[in-house]
Amino acid sequence: MEDSPEAPDNGADARKSGGAARANQVRFDTSQLKSSYCNVCNGSSTREEVVLNFGVNSTWDLGRDQLEVSLQHRIVMSPHAAKRVRDMMVRLIDEHEARHGKLDG
Q1: Listing from the earlier edge strand, what are the strands of the sheet with 69-77?
Q2: Cβ burial 77-100 (10 Å sphere, 16+ → b, else e)
Q3: End-to-end CA distance of the chain
Q4: pLDDT, averaged across the chain
């Protein structure tokens, strides 16, 4: 297992305050991690699940009547997990805009 540089040390606050309870530390195993580029995302939901599909539109320069998207990943999660993903995305975009300027759209 490897420590992720983005993983916060959740026990730091408990140690600083001298508290008896120490927060759990999270270790991310990145040995199976794969990265993919995607420029298309769509989704759907039911009462029990939120489904996100990610893929690549490689025909972006051929005009709107010839759109072909290769879907490569489907992520299925609970609505509660999806809400946490939404909150994380809002925070990440806010941080990006603070550093690099407002995004259009």
Answers
A1: 40-45, 50-57, 69-77
A2: eeeeebeeeeeeeeeeeeeeeeee
A3: 39
A4: 84
- Gap between the Cα atoms of 92 and 86, Å rounded: 10
Give the C-alpha separation, 32 to 50, whole Å: 24
This prediction's pTM: 0.66
- Residue written as tokens 């490897």? 2
User: Does 44 score more than 90 pLDDT?
Assistant: yes
The CA distance from 14 to 51, in Å, is 37
* Dist CA 79 CA 52 (whole Å): 12
Find tokens 């946490």 and name the residue.
Answer: 84
- Express as a percent the part of the chain with pLDDT over 90: 65
